[in-house]
Amino acid sequence: MHITHLSLTNFRNYGRLELTLPQGPILLYGNNAQGKTNLLEAIYYLATTRSPHADNDAQLLNWNATQAEEPLIVGRLNATVATSKQTISLEMRLIQEQKIARSRTRNFSFRRQALIDRRKVRLMDLLGMMRVVLFLPEDVQLLTGSPANRRRYMNITLCQIDPVYCRTLSNYNKVLEQRNATLRQLAEGQPVRDVLPIYTEKLVELGSLIFLRRAKFLANISQQTQQIHYESLTAGKESIKLLYLPRLNSSRSKVSPYEEQSTTELADWLENHQGQSELVSERFGKLLADSLATDIARGATTIGPHRDDWTFQLNGRSLGSFGSRGQQRTAILALKMGEINWMETATGERPILLLDEVVAELDEQRRAALLNAVTSTTQAILTATDPGMFSDTFLQTATRMEVKNGRIQIAVQE
To answer: Fewer CB within 10 Å, N- or C-terminus of the chain?
Structure first.
C-alpha cells in the first residue's frame, strides 16, 4: 500500500500543494515550522479522520484563508492510494461557512465531508481505506499519560482494520450518552425508570463485543511487540508484555462473584471466551445492575469499555512506574513496529509508515532496527531537520525532499 499523489488545499501552511510520491523511504527535511509535520498530519488525518495534534478540526484550515472575507472556505485533502487490488482516491473536505446575522456579527459553521472516488460517503467509510502507523516523539505518553490516550490508541488502530469494531464503538458511545442522560434524569426525580433497561440492554450487547475485540487485539499485538523487543531491541535481555485492563469489575468494597478475578485475570478470561459473547454479556449486565445506585448518584455509567485501560510490563514490573526513559522509548518503538507486523498479518499489506523526528531520539542499535523496518516497507515518510543524522546507505535508498515555507522540492542526489 502506498500513496502515489497527494493534494492539499488550504491545509495548515499549505495554500496549495500537488506532490507525487514514490515508493520506498521518503525523507522530508528542512528547518522547523516549514510544513514537514503538517504533511504527515494530512496523511494521518485522511487515514483516521483525526488529527494527532489539533484539538479542533477548524484549526487545520490555512490561517491566511480563514482571514479572508470569503463567505465559504474549503480545505481539501486528497490522496491517490494504490493497493495490491485497486487504486482509489480519498478526499476530506473541511468546510467553514461564514454567516452575518442581523446584528452584523459573524457566525461560523464548520463541517466535514468524506469522499471515495469522488463519491460522498460517511466519515467512517474512510477508515481502513488507507492504513498508516504514526511514530511521534510524544508517543511515550502512552506509558505516562491518561487512560483516555491509551483507549484512543486502541480505537484508532483497531478501526483501521476492523470496520465492525468501529461501527460498534460508534453505536456504543451514542447509547452511553443516552443512558447517562437517563441516569441524570433519574437523579433529578424524573419518571424515566422504564426507559433505562432499554439503553442498558443495548449497552451490554455493544459493550460485550468491544471487550472481546480489544482483548484479542492486545493479545495479538503484545505477542508481536514482545518478539521485536526481545529479539531485535534488547538482545534477549528484557521481556515485555501488554496487559489489557478491562472495566469489567467494580470499585466497591463488597464484590459480587463476577468480580472475584483480578483485572489481569479478566483479560485472560476475555481472551479465552472469544466467540462467547453471551457469557461476557451476562457478566457485564450483572455488574451494571449491581452498580445502578452508584450510577444514578453520579449521573454516569461507571462500568464498561469506556473506562478501559491497558499497560506495559517489563520483566513483570510496571514499565510506566519503574522503567527508565530509555526503556520506555524502546518499548514504544517495539509497540509501533509490532503494530506494523500486526496490520500486515491482518490485511496482507504493510501500512504506510509516518515518522516525525523520531530517529534523533534513538541510539544506534534502535535506530538501525527502525530504519530496517522503514526500508523493508512499501512506503515510509520520515521528517528531520538534518539529513546528516542518517547513514549514507539509507540516504542512497531514500527520496529526499526539502520543505521550505509550505513548498516541497525534490533534492538532487549527490
So the answer is: C
| Mean pLDDT (whole number) for 142-162 | 93
Dist. CA 19–CA 74, nearest whole Å = 19
Q: Would you kindly state where each structural domain of the chain is located, as residue ranges?
A: 2-131+350-410, 139-321
Residue 330 has pLDDT above 90, yes or no: no
Write the CATH number of the domain with boundaries 2-131+350-410. 3.40.50.300
Strands laid side by side in the 407-410 sheet = 132-135, 352-356, 379-384, 24-29, 399-404, 407-410
Report pLDDT for 251.
55
Average pLDDT over residues 307-328: 87
**d(C-alpha 39, C-alpha 45), whole Å:** 10
pTM tops 0.85, yes or no: yes
The whole-number pLDDT of residue 260 equals: 39
14-20/87-100 β-pairing: unpaired
The stretch 325-353 carries a mean pLDDT of 91
pLDDT over 90 percentage in the chain = 58
Q: What is the 3-class SS of the chain, one letter each residue?
A: CEEEEEEEEEECCEEEEEEECCCEEEEEECCCCCCHHHHHHHHHHHHHCCCCCCCCHHHHECHHHHCCCCCEEEEEEEEEEECCCCEEEEEEEEEEEEEECCCCCEEEEEEEEEEECCEEECHHHHCCCCCEEEECHHHHHHHHCCHHHHHHHHHHHHHCCCHHHHHHHHHHHHHHHHHHHHHHHHHCCCCCCCCHHHHHHHHHHHHHHHHHHHHHHHHHHHHHHHHHHHHHHCCCCCCEEEEEECCCCCCCCCCCHHHCCCHHHHHHHHHHCCCCHHHHHHHHHHHHHHCHHHHHHHCCCCCCHHHCEEEEEECCEEHHHHCCHHHHHHHHHHHHHHHHHHHHHHHCCCCEEEEECCHHHCCHHHHHHHHHHHHCCCEEEEEECCHHHCCHHHHHHCEEEEEECCEEEECCCC
Evaluate if residue 253 carries a pLDDT over 50: no
**pLDDT, averaged across the chain:** 88
pLDDT of residue 159: 94
